[in-house]
Write a structure and sequence with these properties.
By secondary structure, this protein is mainly beta. It has two helices and 35 strands.
Length: about 500
């Protein structure tokens, strides 16, 4: 009689435990990265009232099975469904990240590494990538000697928005090219103003400038041959539209600023006598490059310094040099110059008939797309690729590698111990963490950005489990009340 009471009490206890687990599962149905748990029961030891015996041919007796009375139930295990992936929810937030596999994000709280499936990350005041509870997301940093390479050593907190990452360094323009068509019948080519092409470029600090190139047919003596044109610089202006070659002295008089240029091997200096004190206009002392086309086909032939000014230069060049010197010292010492040498390519210019209209365009950067330079850039966002690499996006078009998220995998993920805040701790039964981690694409399918893994709780399953648990609890309650009634009857018999 007492055995049934103990069995009923143990049944109440295990069903209460199961109800606690079900309640926690349902509570976290909308928790990002939550892994549901399930309870497994086992029977407790048995009281044997009669041992098993085998048959005896000598006596003619048969074998008998053991007679045992069970003493209730126990909780065998509470298992987390670690490997069951929750539904994905799109957020389009680049810092919402989902692991497409069995791996875990590595986070650090209080100097201890933990593991999580919850990828709803944010950035703290120091620019460190972290969880909503403040645990730092761990990963690998960029090699200082090679900003395109990740150093995969021991993981450390990822500071993706540190002061040095909030901007992108400017670069001076190193190349540009002119494309389009020159029509020999274009009257602008024979006019005093010529055909003007504006070439934009950056200096080393990211300031923008525009060089005015004048293309024209030389009408003097000696006259250029058919298909030949002159190219010279008329001015270089800054972002405000002011010439960089002229400034005002303390008396308000226009004077040379000290800036000079070299174009096609020809040194340009301001002709002091030509300076107009009314509007600051001026002229250069120097020369012009020569642009040649095949008169029969209209195809580009070469661009060079004029023979008189630079007889040593070959006649089959596609490009000419263009260098602005910010001061006198910069002429001999490039480190003193705020500008870079620019290779100006003319090979994409043609001379075809187009109804007397020339159309020319100058583009920063070479024909290979390199050397365009860039202005100072401010970070305007971040992105994360499938391998966990984090890139900063800047308003000057730059995309710079900032670090890489590392992940961890375990031989027995179910052996991890939940510690709250969607985090797990490694245990002896889960397997150790080596402190380095692995690439998200190593043994997995990588990461999904702008997506969160939600809870893997199945509500229909939980409600079904709740009903069966309730019925089990009620049945065990009935065992206790019935056993109590029988005991009461026995007591009454004694009276």
């Amino acid at each position: 009689m007492m055995r049934s009471l103990f069995s009923g009490v143990s049944g109440l206890k295990v069903h209460q435990t199961k109800m606690d687990v079900i309640g926690n599962n349902i509570d976290n149905v909308n928790t990002v990265g939550f892994k549901s748990s399930s309870v497994n029961f086992s029977d407790v030891f048995y009281q044997t009232t009669q041992s098993a015996s085998g048959p005896n041919s000598a006596t003619g007796t048969t074998g008998r099975n053991a007679m045992q009375i069970g003493l209730g139930a126990n909780v065998a295990s509470i298992t987390k469904k670690i490997s069951a992936t929750g539904a994905s929810q799109r957020t389009d937030d680049p810092l919402d990240i989902m692991i497409n596999g069995d791996q875990f994000f590595i986070v650090n709280s209080g100097g201890t590494n933990y593991f999580t499936k919850a990828g709803a990350f944010t950035v703290d005041s120091y620019g460190t990538l972290c969880t909503p509870s403040g645990a730092a997301v761990m990963g690998w940093k960029v090699d200082r000697n090679d900003p395109t390479t990740i150093i995969r050593d021991a993981v450390s907190p990822l500071t993706v928005m540190s002061p040095e990452n909030l901007y992108s360094k400017p670069e001076a323009t190193k190349a540009a090219y002119v494309s389009g068509n020159i029509d020999s019948l274009d009257t602008q080519l024979t006019s005093e103003t010529g055909k003007i092409v504006n070439v934009s470029f950056y200096d080393k600090t990211g300031h923008s400038y525009t060089a005015d190139l004048k293309i024209y047919q030389y009408q003097g003596d000696p006259a250029d041959a058919e298909g030949e044109y002159r190219v010279e610089v008329t001015d270089v202006t800054d972002e405000s539209g002011k010439s960089i070659f002229i400034t005002k002295d303390k008396d308000g008089k226009y004077v040379p600023s000290g800036v000079t240029i070299n174009f096609a091997g020809i040194n340009y200096t301001v002709d002091v006598a030509s300076i107009n004190q009314e509007d600051g206009s001026f002229g250069f002392t120097g020369g012009a490059a020569k642009l040649k086309f095949d008169p029969a086909s209209g195809d580009f032939v070469s661009v060079t310094g004029t023979e008189a000014d630079d007889p040593s230069r070959p006649e089959d060049l596609n490009s000419i040099g263009f260098t602005v010197y910010s001061n006198a010292a910069a002429v001999t010492d490039p480190t003193q110059n705020t500008f870079r040498d620019i290779d100006l390519d003319f090979s994409k210019v043609t001379q075809y008939a187009t109804s007397g209209v020339s159309n020319l365009t100058a583009v920063k950067g070479g024909l290979d797309g390199k050397g365009a330079g860039k202005q100072f850039g401010n970070m305007n966002g971040v992105s994360v690729d499938t391998s966990g690499k984090i890139y900063g996006k800047y308003d000057n078009g730059d995309r710079i590698l900032l670090g890489q998220i590392a992940v961890a995998s375990f031989s027995n993920p179910a052996g991890l111990e939940a510690v709250g805040d969607n985090m797990f701790a490694a245990t002896q039964n889960s397997g150790d963490f080596d402190g380095i981690g692995q690439d998200p694409t190593q043994g997995g399918e990588g990461l999904l950005t702008g997506v969160l893994e939600m809870s893997n709780v199945d509500l229909s399953e939980q409600f079904t489990e709740m009903i069966t648990t309730q019925r089990g609890f009620q049945a065990n309650s009935r065992i206790i009340t019935t056993s109590d009634t029988l005991l009461e009857e026995l007591i009454n018999l004694k009276r």
